Amino acid sequence: MKKVIIITGATSGVGEECAKRFANTLDWQVIGLARNVKKLEMLHEECGENFLGFKCDLTDYKNVVSVFKMISKRVNRLDICVNNAATFKSKRFVDCKIQDIDNIIDTNLKGMMYVTHETLKFIMDLKQKAGSRIINIGSVASLNGIAYQSIYCASKYGMNGFAEALNQEIIENNISISTIFPGGINTPLWNHKNPYPGEEIDKALDPSDIVDLIMYISELKSKVILKNMTLFPSNEWH
After folding, report:
1. Measured between alpha carbons, how far is 101 from 121 in angstroms, rounded to an integer?
2. How far apart are CA 30 and CA 7, in angstroms?
3. CA nearest 179: which of 155, 159, 209?
4. What is the mean pLDDT of residues 128-141?
């Protein structure tokens, strides 16, 4: 029976690289969640039957619940959930709009919590004996305050605190959480509106660097928990 991984934000950056690697290299069943239906269809073309895409708005809890009901009809196990979807803005807080606060917190923090909530219910209902894992894609902004990224930092600090507490609740169910804290990654989150510091995006981490870690975690014995991992490109230090 193929192992199953759910990936949020599956159509770009780390999520896209993760979907392709697990589907094409590891031969896992990949469940990709994203808003862009056309990109989900393109991923299906690249990955074949190993990829199932579901349109999902993570900020809408009812939508998340509905998608997980559909997932439960397609697979009968869940080994890993990667909470990867995120939005970002680099701007002085006083110049941000209230919509920016809602958008970033609703996506990065509340959306991640919605998916985690449904993931845990799904796994616990299955009563899997093999250990399942939740892998959160955090940020160095989960650990350090960064100027012009106050809302983003708030969302990622929240993710970290949530995982620290939740890990203690679910370990008895043979489920664990690993959080990755990367520095800058060369993804579409960096653009002309949110320029990478020094505009040296080619020096940032590649999405494949993060997926390498996700793959490593996926191969650990179920009794081993790799709790937190921080990695930087060589041009950063926080």
Report:
1. 29
2. 7
3. 159
4. 90
Q: What is the pLDDT of residues 179-214, one digit of tens each?
A: 999 988 888 777 777 777 766 787 888 999 999 999
d(CA 152, CA 105): 8
Q: Which residues pair with 237 in a beta bridge?
A: none
Q: Which of 88, 205, 98 is nearest to 152 (CA)?
A: 88
The distance from CA 226 to its chain's CA centroid, rounded to whole angstroms, is 16
Task: Tell me how far apart the alpha carbons of residues 201 and 188 are, in angstroms, rounded to a whole number.
Answer: 11
pLDDT in tens, 210-225: 999 999 999 999 899 9
DSSP string for 139-192: -GGGTS--TT-HHHHHHHHHHHHHHHHHHHHHGGGTEEEEEEEE--BSSTTSSS
Q: What tokens does 37 get?
A: 């239906």
